[in-house]
């Protein structure tokens, strides 16, 4: 009887240990620039308003993925992407000499982002102890379009675009809710975007990287192609014959990235800037 009691206690402790060790904490990606951005005041009087970014999702994945913690994390990342892009687009407009207003502006910036998520080769498998899980491959593709519109002549507009996609599909193995398996040893499914089930670290890393790549590509495209306010020939600076220009040597360029030994191996995401002819005309890359 004593041995049986000790055996039950042992199973309980193993189950508790299995539950507590089945998660790994992965912070959300940091979209913030690492170097403070200095904005010199200008007096061109050229105004611009920025409309909220429109996010469209065109998804093709299983119901299993719909209820997974990775899907929860991606939704949070989309929210952070939108929020930080809107903030930094204001910064870019200011760097170009525009005055930000909410209405009755000279120019308007409209942005549309399409996020396409596709899950392929979905296979449901089973473990006697831990229950059902899914094996599949995941792909993510971002397409962005920014329209710079003359508010006084709306048909006069310029479009900037940026695209990012993964080089290859990401292999996934994630648990799902099920009735099979031994309750004591079933894998507990996380619903917290920063608390992932073990085994999802690398997929999360690759997904984060694709979001950051698209974020940086979009801002660089906007900065490279958005005309300076002084070049719009609508107003000239007051009280001065010189434009308070941006110092490309010190203000908005990050220090060279420090090489780090990551837990996971980096594979660069594919990016495309369809406005390459005007790229880096000020010699500045917003985010490296």
Briefly characterize the structure.
With 288 residues, the protein is α/β, with parallel strands linked by helices. The protein is 26% helix and 26% strand.
The computed structural class is alpha/beta
Helical amount? 25-40%
Q: What is the end-to-end distance?
A: 66 Å
The count of helical stretches stands at: 4
- Beta-strand residue percentage: 25-35%
Strand count: 10
| Mean pLDDT reading | 76
Taking the sheet with the most strands, its summary is:
8 strands, mixed
Gyration radius over CA: 25 Å
CATH architecture of the domain at 44-226: 2-Layer Sandwich
Oligomer: single chain
The CATH topology of the domain at 44-226 corresponds to Double Stranded RNA Binding Domain
Order of helices and strands: HEEEHHEEEEEEHE
CATH superfamily of the domain at 44-226: Putative neuraminyllactose-binding hemagglutinin homolog like domain
Which regions have little confidence, pLDDT < 50, spanning 5+ residues? 5-20, 179-185, 235-288
The rough form would be described as elongated
| CATH class term of the domain at 44-226 | Alpha Beta
Region (Disordered): 245-288
Keywords: Signal
Biased composition (Polar residues): 259-278
Signal peptide: 1-22
Helix/strand layout:
Layout: H1 2-20, E1 23-25, E2 47-50, E3 54-57, H2 63-66, H3 69-95, E4 99-100, E5 107-127, E6 131-150, E7 157-165, E8 170-175, E9 195-197, H4 201-225, E10 270-273
Parallel strand pairs: 2-4, 2-5, 3-5
Antiparallel strand pairs: 1-9, 5-6, 6-7, 6-8, 7-10
Helix pairs in contact: 3-4
């Amino acid at each position: 009887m004593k041995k049986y009691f000790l055996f039950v206690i042992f199973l309980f402790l193993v189950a508790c240990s299995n539950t507590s060790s089945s998660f790994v904490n992965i912070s959300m990606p940091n979209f913030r620039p690492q170097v403070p951005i200095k904005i010199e005041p200008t007096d061109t009087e050229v105004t611009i308003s920025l409309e909220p970014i429109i996010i469209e999702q065109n998804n093709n994945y299983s119901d299993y993925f719909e209820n997974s913690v990775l899907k929860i994390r991606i939704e949070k990342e989309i929210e952070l992407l939108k929020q930080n892009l809107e903030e930094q687009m204001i910064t870019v407009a200011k760097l170009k000499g525009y005055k930000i207003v909410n209405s009755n502006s000279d120019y308007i910036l409209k942005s549309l982002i399409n996020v396409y998520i596709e899950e392929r080769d979905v296979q449901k498998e089973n473990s006697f102890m831990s229950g059902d899980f899914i094996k599949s491959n995941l792909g993510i593709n971002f397409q962005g379009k920014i329209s710079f519109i003359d508010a006084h002549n709306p048909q006069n507009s310029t479009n900037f675009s940026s695209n990012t996609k993964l080089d290859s599909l990401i292999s996934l193995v994630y648990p799902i809710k099920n009735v099979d398996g031994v309750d004591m040893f079933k894998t507990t499914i996380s619903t917290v975007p920063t608390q992932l089930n073990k085994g999802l670290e690398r997929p999360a890393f690759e997904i984060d990287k694709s979001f950051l790549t698209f974020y940086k590509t979009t801002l660089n495209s906007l900065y490279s192609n958005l005309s300076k306010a002084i070049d719009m020939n609508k107003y000239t600076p007051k009280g001065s014959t010189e434009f308070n220009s941006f110092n490309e040597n010190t203000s908005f360029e990050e220090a060279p990235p420090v090489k780090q030994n990551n837990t996971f191996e980096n594979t660069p995401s594919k990016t495309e800037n369809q406005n390459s002819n005007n790229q880096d005309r000020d010699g500045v890359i917003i985010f490296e």
